[in-house]
Automatic annotation (TrEMBL):
NCBIfam families: amidohydrolases. InterPro entries: Amidohydrolase (IPR017439), Aminobenzoyl-glu_utiliz_pB (IPR017145), Bact_exopeptidase_dim_dom (IPR036264), Peptidase_M20 (IPR002933), Peptidase_M20/M20A_hydrolases (IPR052030), Peptidase_M20_dimer (IPR011650). The keyword Transmembrane does not apply. Transmembrane segments: none annotated. Residues 206-298 form the Peptidase M20 dimerisation domain. This is Amidohydrolase. One of its GO terms (molecular function) is para-aminobenzoyl-glutamate hydrolase activity. GO terms for cellular component: cytoplasm. Pfam families: M20_dimer, Peptidase_M20.
Amino acid sequence: MPRFTSLAAGLLLSAASLTSAAASGDSMLEYLNRHAGDYADIADAIWDNAELGYQETKSSTLLRETLAGEGFAIETGVAGIPTAFVASYGKGGPVIALLAEFDALPGISQSANPVREEVEGKNAGHACGHHLFGAGSVAAATAVKRWLEQNDIPGTVRLYGTPAEEGGSGKVYMVRAGLFDDVDAVLVWHPGDRNTSDPATSLANKSAKFRFYGQSSHAAVAPERGRSALDGVEAMNFMVNMMREHVPQESRIHYVITSGGSAPNVVPDFAEVFYYVRHPKAAELQKIWTRVMAAAEGAAQGTGTRLEAEVIHGNHSMLPNETLATAMHKRLEEVGGVQYDAAERAYADKISKTLNLSEDLTGMEARVEPMEFIQGMGSTDVGDVSWQVPTVEMGAATWVPGTAPHSWQAIAAGGMSIGHKGMMVAAKTMALTAADLYQNPQLLKAAQEEFEQRRGKDFHYEALLGDRAPPLDYRK
């Protein structure tokens, strides 16, 4: 991996500029401190809505109305997605963008209490903290907007409302529509259990629903007349599971059977399996995907069934940018981590007892982790953005240390003050980093040069999900 740290450090603001930035930073931090409760209320409303991908009508509306009330120009329904939007303030360059997610996860429900407690009638939850993600990014964008306005600084701050990150690839359609073509840098964050700003990458990811169609019949009286769609699903799964031994070890393949029939004595004429396939490199992912498709086709042929495959989403890996990560890490160290009060410490202790931790992580929420290159094993549609624009992502401790994403513990802490405090760490860090970028053209230039070097001169972007329209009903 090329090392850009020394260059990036040298491009941070001069002493005089830092003094100016610190004064303007104080103004932004004062605003964010003063309105922390307002943004916590917004996050809590989205937490309570817990709307699934492409169905986030209330959550999207709340964020749009908040930004419109601050003087942002709002463009709604972008890229053919009703809940996607772009909010802009200012004119000319540089254009610094922030991303806001707000979709929940299906099949997981939890109150804000530190014990397992499902909420009756609620079948979705913010187990990945996107309610905080959206509200925190809006807070940062608003602070930057006010700073640009008060100091008469040229440039544009833009916030992208990006639906359906969880398996819906909302950002990919926005990239494909050219909505990031004039952006100079993207700042993004994600809830987590620690405070980080790393030049990290992730796994490229592609998914599809494989639908098998057979012939129903009485499973005992006339089995010879039936052709089991479930046999097709099981034959495909068997072949793919054997294939696991013969793919690169960093690959990931997982599936769920979403439909397998209704009664044992009826040969099912329809069955469906939903697959995710991941690899660090998009080119290798495509090779594995070709083999998975061949297994599906072979399964259909061998069971006398008919196959339909619908690609649902596809994400590129994150393209790291060490120049931006270094600048953001400096600001994160200045902001610092999350400080628990006595009640929050007691709450965290109760959560910790449910995590089966092998080490004591007490106090990790208050630290800022050293910057290092990270090969993440998850996937995100931010990856596609990062191949179009220099992008940096930070993490903030919105969960009790040791908490895994997509867990009830993440929902719980994200619904109370621990989550709110971590959200404001992210908002402050992103706002200060944006101010640095507006005031230091050389820093932006260095980030762009690194971006072009890492991407390669022959790079040509192609969406892994092809030319399909957004799957607006994939969660229905």
